[in-house]
């Protein structure tokens, strides 16, 4: 197999596998974000805050979100999550070997640890740099609970939000 073909296959496999994993873990991510935000919003003592939690742990939180918002609530932020994984994981996993070669690795079985660390850090930083805006959109959408009757969602749809974020927040 040629180097270009192998690299393209590596990029495709990395992005696709992480996007599939994201579909499975999105309900857990939604619940985690809700639990984290709930802790941030409570301005009381630790004991009182613990007793008044709405999302009482991961499993109860999953059930609560599904009961309040339906199964769709568990998949809020899925599209930005998939886009993020397509960018982040594709770059992070797919770029590792080419960057390792760029840093001087000749034999994959005898590459010095310093080159592996440098290549991993570079590939991870590259993926994070490009994927961070989509990560912010994902977290905002996942944290937005069910609006009350007559109330609008706090955040606009993903396309509008990502456009607003990129033009106003950088």
TrEMBL record:
Q: Where in the cell is it found?
A: Membrane
Which PROSITE patterns does the record associate with it? SOLCAR
- Tell me which InterPro entries the record gives: MCP_dom_sf (IPR023395), MCP_transmembrane (IPR018108), Mito_Metabolite_Transporter (IPR050391)
Q: Which SUPFAM superfamilies match?
A: Mitochondrial carrier
* Keywords from the UniProt entry: Membrane, Repeat, Transmembrane, Transmembrane helix, Transport
Q: Would you indicate the residue range of the signal peptide?
A: none
Q: Where are the Solcar repeats?
A: 5-102, 111-170
Pfam families linked to this entry: Mito_carr
Q: Which family does it belong to?
A: Belongs to the mitochondrial carrier (TC 2.A.29) family.
Its recorded name reads: Uncharacterized protein
């Amino acid at each position: 197999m040629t180097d270009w073909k192998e690299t393209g296959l590596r990029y495709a496999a990395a992005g696709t596998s992480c996007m599939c994993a994201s579909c499975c873990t999105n309900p857990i991510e939604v619940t985690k974000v809700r639990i984290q935000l709930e802790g941030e919003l409570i301005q009381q003592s630790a004991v009182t805050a613990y007793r008044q939690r709405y999302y009482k742990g991961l499993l109860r939180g999953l059930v609560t979100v599904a009961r309040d918002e339906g199964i769709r609530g568990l998949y809020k932020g899925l599209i930005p999550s998939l886009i993020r994984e397509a960018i982040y994981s594709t770059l992070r996993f797919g770029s590792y070997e080419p960057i390792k070669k760029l840093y001087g690795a000749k034999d994959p079985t005898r590459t010095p640890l310093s080159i592996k660390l440098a290549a991993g850090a570079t590939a991870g930083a590259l993926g994070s740099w490009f994927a961070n805006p989509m990560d912010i959109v994902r977290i905002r959408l996942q944290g937005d609970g069910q609006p009350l009757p007559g109330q609008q969602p706090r955040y606009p749809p993903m396309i509008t939000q990502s456009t607003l974020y990129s033009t106003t927040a950088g």
